[in-house]
Every structure is written in structure tokens, then in C-alpha cells.
């Protein structure tokens, strides 16, 4: 089942099955067609981790039916009890954090240290939202007439569909499931086919913690299963994280039957560096923001907009830092900082963007091709790549690469830098490095993005704050923080007359 180069991770020996199933109505079942797909290790393409059901509309229909049946009783379960089940699952997962992190590195490729951080973050998000079970408050509101008592409360939506990406295979499902379940919804979730094991392990933990049958249903598969979720008119809301292209398709389809959507999509996040900044710190953060998770983060730093008079020196500083610190390799190996891309398609796409940059007259100052060397040929490794001389009208300023490719642009002062940063369709995250408080506030006022950072990287976030973007990056309500509950509930106003 595994190659000598990538054996089963130590923590997972004997704990990972070779064949997984869907969870429908509390039972583990194969797909209706009997078809399966393989989950493979991107650091070693011949290494098959496990097989999963390749589901179609029949599997989704069965899961939605189970979720509908389970909804009335789950809605009637007191919210603190719902939260307590989630908290139990979180505690059990904390006990096996190392297993969960290793599973993620195995199937997604990110380095183990990053996988540990992601699991911890996902658990923190679930934990925070489990606590909302005791805080799902409404309001009492003064009435205009005597003898009338008026109050509001939150009502769950019903069956919620979730479609998630491979790049945060643990944290994204975790931060969606927490608020949806604590608010009293039932769920059908479909994780990305490239990295389904992490979600499998979360669902197992929630199932084992005592979720009643049908409250949480897991349907594995690819776009076919995703489309079936979107087409099922019994689903009342869809929470999606993935590409902007698929997000737009989902939005159009959901509008047909008035289904609520929450779309977390791509980014083209800019880091502005002004001449007065702490340039050493800025360079460090640019490197971690651009090459952490191999650039496969929606919040990755993919553009650096530098004040023209320091631009060349700053590019050199970043190039040198990457040469010294960004070692590419298997995420399980000590000292490795950057793992592989997810698959061969991602390699081809990244190579295509480098070729386009060259055609548009940009300069590749570091990397630019598939990485080779000991062990690297077996996986989807790409060199950390830095491209200078990018102009606002160039492709690399506008399109999301989703790989380890960092573009440098020059700007003439703050206003010009902000204009360039805003000159794209995306609006997820951004950062500025400066010691000038007025510049920082001006930036915070003008930047078109959902997440803003001053002297910290575009990838930074904490679970108790809202997360999400604007423009083509986000639509339909924030995730994480207490505001996450808003998407998963509707306000009801009740007028209770006790007068004559
Ligand atoms: P993707 O859009 O290809 O796939 C995401 C999910 O949608 C997968 O589960 C996939 O099977 C499913 N899917 C694909 N086609 C579908 C269709 N037609 N109908 C229904 N479902 C369908 O994205 P990806 O490649 O898995 O993830 C990378 C993208 O996700 C990047 O653009 C990245 O920026 C974005 N992302 C955004 C955030 C955020 O919070 N904003 C977080 C992580 C990733």
C-alpha cells in the first residue's frame, strides 16, 4: 500500500483504514454505485492512503432524507446539549491531535508543523462555537401597545449542505460544522476528493461523541456529488469553500430555489511595504505568507507592492531569505518548510502562470519550475518562485495561482500602492508594513478586503473574529467568530398578546 520513501506515518499505524464509507443516517455505507476513488499522497504519487466512496445523486438523496428526518428532534434538543456533544468530540480530537495532523500531512502534503497548527485552529473554532450553545440569545423588544410581549429568537434553517476544499481539509469543515450543528441544523457534508481523510476523522469523532443518527451525514465524492447537493431542493442553505469559478456556479444554481449561500472563495492578496517599515520583519512575513502551505492558501501573500525606492533592495532581501530558509520536500521530514502541490494539474497550472509572466515581460528571479532532486521526482514539488517587474495590468497581478509564486510590483507611495492592491476582482486579505500610524489607518480605511493586517502577514487570523472576503472572494456571511451563527439561523419575531 505504501512506498518505502513514504511509509504510513508513525502515529497512524494501525489506525487508518484502507477503505472508508459514507455516513448516512448513522450508518457507514458504500456508494450506491459501488464505485470508489483513491486518496493519494502528493509527496509520493504511487502511495495510496485509502479508498473512499465515489458518490452520486442517489447517495446525496439518501443523506438529505436522513438529515430531514433528524431535523425536528435536533432542533428541539436544547442548544447547550448540542454544544456539549460538539465539545466532547473536540476533547477526543485534542487527545489525538498528532494522528489528525499526520493524516493531513499524508494526504495534503503540508509540513507537519503547519498541519498541527491547522488541527489546533480547527478545534479552537469548534470549541468556541460549541460555547455558543449557551449564548444563542435573542432580544425582548418594547411593544407599541399595552399587553403585548415581543421577542426575537434564532431558528435553525433545516438541512445544510457543505462543500469543502482540500487545502484546509481539517479546519474548514471544522469551522463550518461547529456553528451549523450548535445552531440546530442537520448537515450533509462533502469534502474535497483530493483530501477526504481529515473530514472523515472529524465526522467519526462527532459520531462517536453521540450525535443522533442523521444529524450529520458524510458523502464522499467529486463534483458529481457536489452538484447533487446544490440541486437538491430540500437543502435550505449551502456553505461552500473553494474556487471562485465553482462558487459562482453554486450561487446561480441556488438562486433558482431561493437557497441561502455562503461562499468563501479565492484571493489575490497583496502585502504593501512602505520604505519606513521594519524591512527584516516584513521580509520574514512575506516569505511565510507566500510559501507557507506551498502558497495553497486562500489568504496567501501572492503580491508584494513595494515603494519604488526600496523595491530592488527588498526583492533581493526576500530572495536571499527564501534561498536560506525555504527547503522543499516531504512534509514529514525535519527541516522541510515547503511541501508539494496537491497534484499534477496544479504543477501544470503553476508552470503556465510562470510562462505567461515571461511572455508579459516579467522577470523570474528565483525558481520557476518543477523541483527535482532526491525523492522529489515522486511527488508534485515546485520550486519557490519569485517574479519581479510585474505591472498592475499583468496576469500575475490579477489571477490566483494557488502555488508558490510571489509577484513583486513597484508603487509610488501609499495611495498608488492601495490603488494597485484594489485593482483586482478579489478582496480576501491584505497587509501593510509601515511605522506610520496615519498610513496604517488610511490603509485600513481604503483597502477592499475582509481581512486586514498591519505589520503582520496576510495569512494571520484568530477563530473568535469573523473570517471571509468581499468582491469575488466572499459572499453571503462570515465564518468563524460569534458571527458564524448568523448564516446558520434565521431571526423569528414573536408577538405575544396577554392583554384584553
Ligand atoms: P474547487 O472549487 O475546485 O473545489 C471545492 C469543492 O467543490 C470540492 O469539494 C469539489 O469537489 C467541489 N466541486 C467542484 N466542482 C463542483 C460543482 N460544479 N458543483 C459543486 N461542487 C463542486 O476548489 P479547490 O481546488 O478544492 O480549492 C482551492 C480554492 O479554494 C482556491 O481558489 C482557494 O482560494 C479557495 N479557498 C478559499 C478559502 C476561503 O476561506 N476564502 C479557504 C480555502 C480555499
Please tag this protein with its features.
binds nicotinamide-adenine-dinucleotide; 500 residues; alpha/beta; globular; 15 helices; six-stranded mixed sheet; disordered N terminus; 2 domains; Aldehyde Dehydrogenase, Chain A, domain 1; seven-stranded mixed sheet; Aldehyde Dehydrogenase, Chain A, domain 2
Question: Which hetero ligands occur in this complex?
Answer: nicotinamide-adenine-dinucleotide
User: Which spans have pLDDT < 50 for at least 5 consecutive residues?
Assistant: 1-5
Task: Tell me, rounded to a whole number, the average pLDDT.
Answer: 96
Kindly provide the radius of gyration, computed on alpha-carbon positions and rounded to a whole number of angstroms: 23 Å
The helix tally amounts to 15
Strand proportion: 15-25%
Query: Structural class of the helix and strand makeup?
Result: alpha/beta
- CATH topology descriptor of the largest domain: Aldehyde Dehydrogenase, Chain A, domain 1
User: Roughly how many Å apart are the termini?
Assistant: 76 Å
Order of adjacent strands in the largest pleated sheet:
14-15-16-13-12-18-19
CATH architecture of the largest domain: 3-Layer(aba) Sandwich
Task: Assign the CATH superfamily of the largest domain.
Answer: Aldehyde Dehydrogenase, Chain A, domain 1
CATH class of the largest domain: Alpha Beta
Helix content: 25-40%
- Principal-axes geometry comes out as globular
Tally of strands: 22
What count of domains describes the coordinates? 2
